[in-house]
Design goal:
single chain, 8 helices, binds (3R)-3-hydroxy-3-methyl-5-(phosphonooxy)pentanoic acid, about 325 residues
Length: about 325
């Protein structure tokens, strides 16, 4: 019986993408830049079986994204029925990028178990078809995802040990996000009057973010990352019907991060399609940053993470 287990870390975008150029191939409209969260992980086991089953965090599910992904894979490769079991050490579907780590781990486990013989770039292509941000989770450290004609280029900009930053993730809700990213970003593209401005300014932001990371220039990265986050949420707010992911605790955390930075701490915030606030800071400040965020009403807890490495194979047979 063929089987393999792999894990991958989620990643958080500092220059974000929200909107696709090609829905069928799942190609983002704009380039993005992210960092990998090493202390959060999704572990996925796949094995040959007699009827296909998907189990996510101990619950048997009928997941459209995974089913669609498997159907595409079967068009290209001769695969048996597969049992997929996946679990994360952090809440799924809440804006913590579980689909990124999930599809990265699933791609690596599946391609190993069934000897699909995929290069790293091909693994990135398949992971991207499940969730575009998943392509970034096959690499570690700081990673870019850039749209090309019928694919995307994925590159590691800095290795996970090259810049000693950490992330304090303030968990501000225990519910799943209200609107998933695929539906949300299609609605933004179709209805927001600001969509064209968003894609145009994101291309400039990507260039600035890239050189800030290459030069390890924290203030420059803070400025571009916070602006990208606010612009994306402004686009979401201007979508019909409106996509409001923030809650009161999100705003308290934003203010706290701004106050800490004004007080001399190198820290900035970023928020994805959910209400949690990720405070990125120099590692020696992470305890202070997480203690401050933990004080607010509505903050259920703070998870601290260092920057993580690439997806890894755990076992195969
Ligand atoms: O690719 P998806 O469906 O996981 O969407 C990712 C969307 C954001 O996390 C909000 C931004 C990003 O670039 O990761």
């Amino acid at each position: 019986m063929r089987a393999a287990t792999a894990y991958a870390h989620p990643n958080i975008a500092l220059v974000k993408y929200w909107g696709k150029r090609n829905d069928e191939l799942n190609i983002p409209a704009t380039p993005s830049l992210a960092l990998t969260l090493g202390d959060l992980r999704t572990t996925t086991h796949v094995e040959e079986t007699t009827s296909s089953v998907v189990v996510l965090d101990d619950e048997r599910v009928d997941d459209n994204k995974i089913n669609g992904w498997l159907a595409q894979l079967r068009r290209q490769f001769d695969l048996p029925h597969i049992r997929i079991e996946s679990s994360s050490n952090f809440p799924a579907n809440s804006g913590l990028a579980s689909s990124a780590s999930g599809f990265a781990a699933l791609t690596l486990a599946t391609s190993t178990a069934f000897e699909l013989d995929l290069s790293l770039q091909e693994q990135c292509d398949w992971a991207r078809r499940g969730s575009a941000s998943a392509a970034r989770s096959l690499h570690g450290g700081f990673v870019t995802l850039e749209p090309r004609e019928n694919t995307c280029r994925v590159s590691q900009i800095l290795h996970e040990n090259e810049w000693d930053l950490s992330v304090a993730v303030a968990i501000t809700s225990d519910r799943s996000k209200s609107t998933g990213s695929t539906i949300g970003m299609t609605a933004s593209r179709d209805t927001s009057p600001f969509y064209e401005a968003w894609t145009r300014t994101t291309i400039d932001a990507f260039g600035l973010g890239l050189s800030a990371v290459q030069n390890k220039d924290f203030p420059a990265l803070a400025q571009v990352a916070e602006a990208s986050c606010r612009h994306m949420h402004a686009l979401m707010l201007s979508t019909e019907p409106s996509l409001i992911y923030w809650n009161a605790a999100t705003l308290h955390c934003i203010e706290a991060v701004e106050r800490m930075r004004a007080g001399g701490i190198n820290v900035f915030y970023t928020i994805d399609a959910g209400s949690h606030v990720k405070a990125v800071c120099e590692s020696d400040a992470v305890n202070e940053v997480s203690d401050r965020l933990r004080q607010f009403e509505g903050v259920h807890g703070v998870v601290v993470s260092s920057i993580g490495g690439p997806a890894q194979l755990v076992s195969e047979r």
